């Protein structure tokens, strides 16, 4: 049974104007940071979003939590388009969709105590916690994320990176949201602490019945936490599917290239894996290639790729074929096994 979609993102677009001149600021173009992204987030699931630096992951995250207004498109939370809400209605929705940031060193105010940082959301939503109850709640949150409740009066610099990210997570939980958008929550941490923070997020998901959008640039980080994965390239989703579909049956050349770069711990498997090296750099999102945006780096590109934008759809040959069918935005989508099975 498929759970209901609590968040439906449809044709989301975010363009940043490119201006020239200091006084008049004439618009000369636009950075197409996000350019037509659609996905669902279902109750209780984790959707992983992956892609190289600059492909628009953080921009998607910021629009989902209302930090940024979309240029176009819809973000429906339980059927209501939050992109169109304002004032009190927007505030009520935002309470339910919280963000955990990438860098626990810069995202926590160094002059505030941990108690004030975690309790700050209550200043904006005093209806959630009466003043006299806040300290107790904050201490409970510290305990929930595995930190000593006695630390409530300490400052961020007295904590390690992993502990700071726990503080950021506690703050994200303060309003008891339904959805947490975690934007590269472990990328700034040592590899040895990354797993601990991912495990914490998994435990909290069960405990608080949370749905996650989990962003990372590395496919290996999202593999175990994600139920479904969306792969982004230059402002668009190029392939999406379940963990097994993306890792076991990738059909988009970009996904295959990303997967071929994932570190493989087993030396035997490492010898048998296939390496795909991508030519060139990611083009500028201010001037993306026509047709398929990946074509300038793709070894399969044909003239049609420059002319026709490949839709994100289940490839025709999948119909009736064995194996899982999932959407891939490539004219020449085909399975290629690049990672040794686990
Ligand atoms: N406020 C802004 N004004 C102009 N351009 C922006 C703004 N924010 C982001 N961009 C541009 O939009 C594109 C997407 O940026 P975004 O931060 O969403 O990418 P990302 O996938 O999160 O990258 P990273 O992995 O480095 O975090 C980039 O080209 C970036 O330079
Ligand atoms: Mg980012």
From TrEMBL:
Keywords: ATP-binding, Nucleotide-binding, Transport. PROSITE patterns: ABC_TRANSPORTER_1 (PS00211), ABC_TRANSPORTER_2 (PS50893). It comes from the Bacteria. Residues 7-259 form the ABC transporter domain. InterPro entries: AAA+_ATPase, ABC_transp_ATP-bind, ABC_transporter-like_ATP-bd, ABC_transporter-like_CS, Oligopep_ABC_C, P-loop_NTPase. It holds the Pfam family ABC_tran. One of its GO terms (molecular function) is ATP binding. The keyword Ribosomal protein does not apply. The keyword Electron transport does not apply. Belongs to the ABC transporter superfamily. PANTHER family: D,D-DIPEPTIDE TRANSPORT ATP-BINDING PROTEIN DDPF-RELATED, TRANSPORT ATP-BINDING PROTEIN. This is ABC transporter ATP-binding protein. It comes from Streptomyces ochraceiscleroticus. The lineage of its organism: Bacteria, Bacillati, Actinomycetota, Actinomycetes, Kitasatosporales.
